[in-house]
Amino acid sequence: MDKLIQGFYEDTIWMVIRENMVAKCICSVCGQKLDISGIAPRLEGVKVYCRICGATTHHKF
Sign (positive/negative) of CA torsion 29, 34, 38, 40? Predict the structure, then answer.
């Protein structure tokens, strides 16, 4: 029983960490998916620069 609860607990923790660390946004001009996993969320949102087309996209978390 302890192994089952411990395994479920570890999976739940892994899912929470994965959701917080993986963040993607889509460029409004070219449609490219951009990885923004290292950016800290802000109340007003963040500006993301697309390396493909050079556009700046405003993204709210």
Answer: positive
What is the band of 53 on the pLDDT scale with cuts at 50, 70, 90?
very high
CB-based contact 42:30 (threshold 8 Å): no
CA 58 – CA 45 distance, rounded (Å)? 7
The parent domain of residue 11 ranges over 2-59
Residue with tokens 């395994």: 7
pLDDT band at residue 22 under the 50/70/90 scheme: low
Residue 50 CB: number of other CB atoms within 10 A?
Answer: 18
The CA distances from residue 1 to 4, 5, 16, in Å, are 5, 6, 23
Count of domains forming the chain: 1
